[in-house]
Amino acid sequence: MPAKIGSISSPGGSFDYLRNSAAFVLLVAVCLILLALLFSQIGLPLFVIEIVGLLLACIIVPARWPYGAVVVLSIASVMPRLSVEIGGWNVRPEHCATFLVLVVLLIRCTLHENLRAKLTFADLAVLAYTAWNYVSSLWMSPDPRSTLRWALLNNLVVLPYFLIRFLVTDERILRWVFRAYLVVGIAECAFALAAFASRQILGTSFGTEIDQYAGGLGGVYGTQYEPNLLGSFAGCTSIILLVFYFLSPRKSHWLIGGAIISVAALIVSLSRAAFLAFALALIILAFVGARAGLVSLRKLLTLGLILAFFIAPIAVTGGRNLLSRFATLSVEGFESDAEAVARLTALTAAFEDIAQHPLVGNGTASFQLLADAKQLPILGDRPWVGNSPIRILHDTGAIGLLLIGVVAVAIGRSVRQVMVAQGREREIVFALTSGCLVYAIAFMSTEGTMLSFFWVHIGLLASACSVARTATT
Fold first, then answer.
1. What are the mean pLDDT values of the chain's consecutive 10-residue runs (473 residues total)?
2. Integer Cα distance of 29 and 183 in angstroms
């Protein structure tokens, strides 16, 4: 594959439409910063914000179909921290956005609009994995009523994958949607930096987790569910932007600007797993790029100097705290790191449950039912398994883990086919695949497959592979 990547970039092409997004990204970032400061000062009730967001989504989705639908799914996917309890259900923006887009899609299909996307083997594997959650939740669960409910919520989380597959069906839509996806990513990272700056300067607490880590350290989560997930998302966004920076034949200032914002957001999240995932992915991609002749020494030096200059203020504060978190992993400090000890304790307890039902699993999100909070108080009120493969194995057994493996292999083969065949839009395919590398590493200690931002990314990658193969044939 590396030998084929050498001709991935070409003058013009995908970079022309990406370069024109700089002003829009800056505008969105400034608006988010101002809104964050405003809401933190006036104390606007959360339900008011959510109602306004829902009304805007109801207007955008049908009025700008299919672009508005994918934008709403992308925006909602990075806001899992917001939630409302309705009838015992913890409803998040991603659930509402998925339901809204699905309803509009069904109405349009009823009005004789044909779905042009064809299901691939990867799509069928995702469908089988989603269905298997119901089987394991009903069959082996200690409380089928609860696990079936969580399986349904997990279904809503995975559904954006299929919605994007149905909506992103040609090159024009793919390019526009990918641009919007990057804008959403940079805007989320800008919001996180606004939360960090406001915390340092004004002492506010929005978007930050106070005293989450040992030593009184608090990471930034922005609108993500927790700082670790913000770190994973920011690391993925950074890698995508950096890949395009090295592939672009021209100077791409907005790509550098977006990379600065996203790397800074990664640092202030204080996520060790995400930072290590970003660093390892960067090393792997640098090796691949060097072999393919894509890593220019001039661009590398320019990027290094710019990042060092602009991220220095963040490194002085958030970077120092991040180093302190790594210091607790030493032999002397490990026992004082409550988060690391809790993760190991959760994994040990999870393996005991897996041994009981290794093939079928114990049901979706069943660990919080099986873990004894009295015997293991370090796990907290809602015990959770942070490692994605172990969590999947615990909930859905070896069958569920095998199905997820089939999804990864099938999408990986599609990516390889696009790269080897020099398919069109291969830049987007390569960039999204590079982002997946960050998730694959970070999710070893930070579970993110039960939130929709991961499935939006995978759905966009699968659609990009499909579009690229169709354009080649």
1. 41 47 51 55 57 79 89 91 77 89 90 78 95 92 90 93 93 90 90 84 77 62 89 94 82 80 89 90 86 72 73 64 61 59 84 92 90 71 86 95 96 91 81 94 90 95 89 62
2. 9
